[in-house]
Specification:
- The protein is mostly beta strands.
- Helices cover about 10% and strands about 45% of the residues.
- Strands 1, 2, 5, 6, 7, 8, 9, 11 and 12 form a 9-stranded mixed β-sheet that branches. Strands 13, 17, 18, 24, 25 and 26 form a 6-stranded mixed β-sheet that branches.
């Protein structure tokens, strides 16, 4: 009888142990947001790299990409956000990007300073990572991408950049049994492609077509460029325009002789080739009303007259009656064609860009 009791106790212990092991396996096989079974494996530490996307443009000769300038490529600080499914898993702020494009914990940091994120390997991978560069805002407390998007960026000249990338594991990668081993063998992820939240708008070229009805040709000097309805605010991730009660106007002054009064006509002056571009930045502005669209006017003088004149205000990226607006991550290169007819100046604006809706835009305007 005593032997039977002992055997029964042993059986119960084995059954309990079996149930416990089964529970452990079930805990490692959780369902993802999509309903797929996730298999949890070992530990992994991510080391991440970032790169800057080229700004899209339509060059004066053909379609292509325009490299960012040195200032536009600069990353002064960045925030690293890890997602597991649709939820924010962790946030690391106050990071930097070194000269090898690795995200590091201190400015100018090397391999020993890599910012590393430690997670359990899961398949299929539920992980994604977002990098936000040059933002002065804190994302602490954000629980989802919607929360992150609602953080308003309000410094267009800081050139905030954002990128997000899904993280996938190789079929036979199972991670490491301990966190220490994972940290010693970090998995390099990236580069994560960052895109500008701002658009760049610039006067690229000034053409003088001719002097009609005039006895003499005269020199023409561009004295400045004015931009209107620049958008000073943006959501962090959404393509939706953040509507401001007050848009910004900005002016830049120059003293550039675009025609010497002697050369054959038509005559072209390139601000690009002469490396004296007049550039402005704006967060996306896709306003429905034309009165709220980004506009430009050019200030100029004819001959030795001290009188400064202006063109009309040209709507940027307008095709016929269709307003395409200004989108983030694009360059809008503007060309002014001018003809002098007696005391009247006729000006035409060409806007060269490459975006989702249209290519070359020609907008004839007049200035009386």
């Amino acid at each position: 009888m005593k032997i039977k009791t002992i055997i029964s106790s042993i059986c119960l212990m084995l059954l309990a142990a079996s149930c416990s092991m089964e529970d452990d396996v079930l805990r490692d096989m959780e369902k993802s947001d999509s309903g797929n079974v996730e298999i949890e494996m070992g530990e992994v530490a991510f080391a991440l790299k970032a790169s800057l996307s080229s700004l899209e443009t339509k060059a004066l000769s053909d379609a292509g990409k325009l490299p960012a300038s040195t200032d536009e490529m600069k990353i002064n600080n960045c925030t690293l956000i890890l997602f597991e499914g649709t939820q924010v898993s962790s946030i690391m702020e106050g990071l930097f990007v070194n000269d090898k494009n690795y995200i590091v914990k201190k400015n100018g940091g090397t391999k020993g300073d890599w910012a590393k994120v430690i997670v359990k390997v899961k398949k299929p991978s539920p992980y994604a990572v977002m990098v936000i560069a040059n933002s002065s805002k804190s994302f602490e407390g954000c629980l989802s991408e919607s929360d992150i998007n609602d953080i308003i960026q309000d410094d267009k000249d800081a050139l905030v950049k954002v990128g997000k990338m899904n993280i996938n594991f190789d079929a036979n990668f199972a991670g490491y049994p301990t966190i220490a081993e994972a940290l010693e063998n970090p998995l390099e992820i990236g580069p994560i492609s960052l895109s500008q939240l701002t658009a760049r708008i610039e006067l690229a070229e000034f053409n003088v077509s001719g002097f009609q009805g005039a006895s003499v040709k005269e020199k023409i000097t561009v004295t400045g460029v004015d931009l209107f309805n620049l958008n000073p605010k943006s959501y962090t991730t959404s393509e939706q325009t953040h509507k401001n009660t007050t848009y910004l106007s900005e002016s830049k002054t120059c003293n550039v002789e675009v025609y010497n009064g002697v050369s054959d006509l038509p005559s072209t002056y390139s601000f690009v080739d002469n490396e004296n571009l007049l550039s402005f930045y704006s967060f996306r502005n896709l306003a429905q009303a034309e009165s709220d669209q980004v506009k430009m006017q050019v200030r100029f003088k004819i001959g030795n007259s001290g009188k400064e004149r202006t063109t009309r205000q040209f709507v940027i990226n307008k095709e016929g009656n269709t307003l395409h607006g200004v989108k983030s991550g694009y360059v809008y290169r503007l060309i002014v064609n001018m003809t002098i007819i007696g005391d009247k100046v006729e000006a035409e604006l060409l806007c060269y860009t490459r975006d989702w809706l249209n290519n070359t835009i020609s907008i004839p305007m007049e200035d009386n």
